[in-house]
Amino acid sequence: MESVLKTIYVIWYRELIRFFREKSQWAGMIMQPTLYLTFVGTGIASAMTFRQAPGGTPVDYMTFIYPGIIGMSVLFTSMFSGISIIWDREFGFLKEILVAPVPRWAISVGKALGIGTIVSFQGTILLILSPFAGLSLTLWTALKVLPICALVGFAIGLLGISIAGRMESMQGFQLISNFLTMPMFFLSGAMFPLHSAPQWLQVLMVIDPLTYGVDALRNAIYAGIPEAQAILQHSIAYDLSIVGLFSIVTAATGVTAFNRQG
């Protein structure tokens, strides 16, 4: 057990070191959501006949999409972090750790925990954008957002790892990841609420795991804002339980992907 925990820790620590050494990632994880919030959010809000979220809820549209933008950032960062598996395979590092006398699931869990830690930092940093959304958030809000981002990032990171473990090239991984991330984002309720969508679209939104991650973020961010409660779909406990179940599924697929490695 000690060797397993040490393996998880070493892989987790390596992911953090890799992230903090790549300064361009820091700028990217702030700039992309900022652009979405300021340009896409403002553009859609100004194109509407009223500056309120769809569905008649008395909330400004920028306030509505703000948690969804955080969810989008967590999704993209977590999914595309899986490409490190292919990099490690190309440069021989993956082969070295696969021959170590430790369970292969510990490697995937360590990587996913590293991804979850990174996106939890990212989510809390993005709280500085709250004034753009007309929100005034507290330290308690940040403390709630951090574990939500970590859990969602862990689950989606495992999904990215399971995909990367089955891909032979970075181009193939990017194609599959783009194919999954864009529908997951737009079906998550980040840009429009579930109850205003057509029935067939609501079905797709309900089976999208990111829907529950975004709703959990809204539960945390909208706490103490009575007029925003109508937007929430479920309790935060229900949302996190669904994300937790999804992480179990992706963990199983991630371990299977590592067992396939030679």
Automatic annotation (TrEMBL):
UniProt KW keywords: Cell membrane, Membrane, Transmembrane, Transmembrane helix, Transport
Protein location: Cell membrane; Membrane
Residue ranges constituting the ABC transmembrane type-2 domain according to the UniProt record: 24-261
MF terms (GO), sorted A to Z: ABC-type transporter activity
Entry-linked InterPro entries: ABC2_TM (IPR013525), ABC2_TM_bact-type (IPR047817), ABC_2_transport (IPR000412), Daunbcin-R_ABC-transpt (IPR005942), Nod_factor_ABC_transporter (IPR051784)
PROSITE patterns recorded: ABC_TM2 (PS51012)
Chief location category: membrane
GO terms under cellular component: ATP-binding cassette (ABC) transporter complex
Signal sequence bounds: none
Membrane-crossing residue ranges in chain numbering: 26-44, 64-87, 112-133, 145-163, 175-195, 236-258
Membrane protein topology class: Multi-pass membrane protein
NCBIfam families: drrB
Stated family: Belongs to the ABC-2 integral membrane protein family.
Name of the featured protein: Transport permease protein
